[in-house]
Design brief:
CATH superfamily: K homology (KH) domain
CATH class: Alpha Beta
Strand content: 25-35%
Number of domains: 1
Largest sheet: 3 strands, mixed
Strand order of the largest sheet: 1-2-3
Length: 78
């Protein structure tokens, strides 16, 4: 919900959770044109999003990591 409020192409936002040893990786896929909006100036926006993910940890031993992944445009797919 937070990511969708930051981007222009809301329909292209995909969030996927990948369980890893010791934590959960949250992959957020967005359109290439929205990558800069999620990173923000000097990385401020992505740092804020990562801080939110850390604050949502229900247990101290479980870690949440956030990664922004750009989607390939249809012409780039093989």
């Amino acid at each position: 919900m937070v990511v969708k409020s930051l981007v222009d192409e809301v329909d292209s936002v995909e969030v996927r959770e990948v369980e890893q040893q010791g934590g959960t990786l949250i992959e957020v896929r967005v359109a290439p044109s929205d990558m800069g909006k999620l990173i923000g100036r000097q990385g401020r926006t992505i740092r804020a999003l990562r801080s939110l993910a850390v604050r949502c940890e229900p247990e101290e031993k479980h870690r949440f990591m956030l990664e922004i992944v750009g989607m390939n445009s249809p012409s780039e797919e093989t």
